[in-house]
Amino acid sequence: MPPGLRLAKSSYQRVFMDYYLTPVADVAAALATTPAGLDAATAGQRLAEHGPNQLANAQQKTIGQLVLHQLADVMILVLLAAAGVSVLIGEAKSAYVILAIVGLNAVIGFVQEYRADKALEALQKMAASHAQVLRDGQPRAILTAELVPGDVVLLEAGNVIPADVRFLEAFALKVDESSLTGESGNVEKTVAALPPGDYPLGDRLNLGYKGTSVTNGRATAYVVATGMRTELGQIATLIQTAEVVTPLQKRLGTLGKRLSVGVLVIAALFFGVGWLRGEPWENLLLVSISLAIAALPEALPALVTVSLALGAGRLMKSHALIRKLPAVETLGSVTYICTDKTGTLTLNQMTVQDLYEVPAVVLAGLADRNALLTALALNTDATCGPENQWLGDSTEVALARYAAEKDYARPALETQFPRLAELPFDSERRCMTTLHQTQQGVLVLTKGAAGALYQQLTAGQQSSLADLTRRVDAQAAQGYRVLAYGAKMLPEMPPDLTPAAIETDLTFLGFASLMDPPREEARQAVAECKTAGIIPVMITGDHKLTAQAIAEKLGIISSPEELVLTGPELTALDEPAFAAVVEKVRVYARVDPAQKLRIISALQARHQFVAMTGDGVNDAPALKNADIGIAMGINGTEVAKEAAALILLDDNFATIVKAVKHGRRIYDNIIKFIRYLLAGSVGEITALFCAPFFGLPIPLLAIHILWINLITDGLPGLALAYEPAEKRSMQRPPIDPRQTIFADGVGWFILGIGLLIGALTIGTQTWAIGQGLPHWQTMTFTVLCFSQLGLSLAIRSRRESIFSLGLLSNKTMLGAVLLTVGLHLTILYVPFCNTLFSTQPLTVAELGIAVAIASVVFWAVEIQKLIFRRRGATPARVAAPAARPSGAAVAGHAG
Ligand code: ATP
């Protein structure tokens, strides 16, 4: 029995063994698998046996839990208490109505939350990671959740290890295990069994753990444990997953608590005053409870979640996949978008536009072949498939394709000059080298950024460098990416295969100028950013002049004050010097991913709210530290995606700007909802609380208040979430994430309109009683209801008149208002409802008067907007620059 093997069976069953002490072949036998992987049928059986490869806390709420959640709401409990009180005081009728309303409310809440949960679930499915496995001997991408023990996974740099695995092949494999072991730095992995002994997790060098990331090299590995049986799963049982709360939700929570205290005091006062006035206490108690319910916005935080989840669903339709819900809200606050160039601002469709050849370079061994074209064809990782489809990095493809079109195809040349070794491209060295066998010896071909290659040329060529640099700069200034080529011949394969030893003493062959056209939609998006008070910044590894030329074409740079900074220039600046210019820099060229972090912190220190894109493994820290980390969906590595709050499914800059627009819309609608709800509450409190002071009876019954609170407020309120973006939402500065809910006159609006609603209600009551109208209470009730409906229509825009918006631009709202009117007329005119709701049918004249009085609120808001427009004022959101939120408020989006 191999060392460490505690239990192994000939056919696969659950096996527990110390895989790190066991030779690979025995691991395979114990897992009943082979290096060619499992077949689909076995994998299916094992999936049924082991369950999905996911952590238990990722499971969704059940329908039962959702229903319970509705009923556990404080407001519902208060309502149930009210029903209990009604029964006690012999008002069984009220109790039924209250229960019916509770039921209806629970149904509406359930449907909304269920839809939101489904939307989130769909998002999670979209964001679900995939793993490359061998199934039936063929490489295949499957959902990580479908991995089973015995699967053979293929791993490469940028992958997150999808399950606990035992490596069977590893090439220069390095893994970052800090997420699991807490120890930073990369661990080099091996395949050999470890000598017997007891090893902590970090020392089990031939094992890889779920959730850790491959930073270098590639590997093949057997899955040994999945789901909760992985090391991560063991810890996950100890971790309570905290629900994500957005900054706005936090503020609403605090507001809710303060309001609760205030409202309880008011309700108690109301009860006390009424009692002293000799009102029947049963009635007072019911109305006091109703008053408290009317005024409390308990449902607000939940409604924000619903809005955000539905918003996230909509964002996905615009190709922006939300990974962290708070991002939906905070997108509206972005002041800087720092973006990569290739593929995001440009099309990532490189083509060679021009070649510059050093005349008369003859490389021995190439006979009379053109040296530069041979280098183009041989020094490449691009391949051409049987149907002429090219695979590989776009720069590589452009160069290889150009050579192939000139009859220098890679396969034919590689047969003659087989590749012996390569030094792959890395973005710090900015070079790549291949070594080939020729009859004269080993041919070394290097290509890379001109500046990097020039440093490696033989001493004899240094004199022509000034001329070469001038030529390259001239090309770069037109927006070309310039790649220079050098070569040398060695008698034999060198023992030391490092860049320092190989990439020296090269003979310059020439250079190729490539063009990657800017995206047309990016130009428009840049312009839109600028009117929206957002500054787009390009961060690229490319040449300063290339970057500058593209930035100018896109409009990122439009004045001499806007700066271009290179990586080396950035390194030379100390913190105060960088802080002084950071807000003026529009392009960072030749920067390393590590410098992105410095850019983010400098901007954040200047109170900017930063969105940052990234695709590589080393972009992950920047993505985590940005206020909104954005990963590329097509070209991004999994590590980058896991670190990001948002994934761009189409890698397109314009999509970021669309997402910001959505973010602003969603935030605006939440604020509209708050304005609507709170203005209504202030109106109800004013009417109920003040009437007795004017010597009037209590204007409404408890049932009426509940009706208004749940139906009149609820239906149109929810419909506000469907309001399209304000016309000028991208023509005003970003939303300050630290701004209170009541900023920009929102507080005054709530107070003013609330008092107006209250005054109209009391006015109607006074007038109707004075006229001796027996239906005074139903009239008052109708005025209160309809004035809020009018408000819901007028509040749809902060600036535009409803007449220019058109009723049909939010059909959900129109439907909600019509439905509410219909329901209200039902309880007014259906005799059975009259008894239930203690209402009386109004005459046409009474109804007409009620509608006319109620419409005052609608006109008041429309006139207020007219004055705004006349003054040419857009309700300002913030004074730029937007201030950063305090520590507590940012917690949600720092990720
Ligand atoms: P962007 O931000 O525009 O996407 P990047 O930051 O990804 O650019 P890199 O791919 O790191 O840029 O390239 C940096 C420089 O390295 C390029 O300007 C080019 O000169 C050189 N380079 C890029 N690809 C290769 C390659 N395949 N072989 C050799 N040199 C390359």
> So what's the overall shape?
elongated
Q: Can you tell me the CATH superfamily of the largest domain?
A: Calcium-transporting ATPase, transmembrane domain
Major beta sheet summary: 8 strands, mixed
Low-confidence stretches: 1-15, 875-895
Q: Determine the mean pLDDT.
A: 84
Distance between the termini: 47 Å
Total number of helical segments? 34
Explain how this protein is built.
This is Ca2+-transporting ATPase. Residues 18-91 form the Cation-transporting P-type ATPase N-terminal domain. Keywords: ATP-binding, Cell membrane, Membrane, Nucleotide-binding, Translocase, Transmembrane, Transmembrane helix. It holds the Pfam family E1-E2_ATPase. The protein contains 34 helices and 23 strands. The chain has 895 residues and is of the alpha+beta class. It has four domains: 16-54 and 132-227, Calcium-transporting ATPase, cytoplasmic transduction domain A; 336-347 and 519-651, 3-Layer(aba) Sandwich (Rossmann fold), CATH 3.40.50.1000; 354-514, Calcium-transporting ATPase, cytoplasmic domain N (3-Layer(aba) Sandwich); 668-878, Calcium-transporting ATPase, transmembrane domain. The strands form four sheets. An eight-stranded mixed sheet has the order 8-23-22-21-9-18-20-19, with helices on both faces. Strands 1, 2, 3, 4, 5, 6 and 7 form a seven-stranded antiparallel sheet that branches. A hairpin with a 5-residue loop joins β11 and β12. α5 (92-127) packs parallel to α26. The radius of gyration is 34 Å and the shape is elongated. Bound molecules: adenosine-5'-triphosphate.
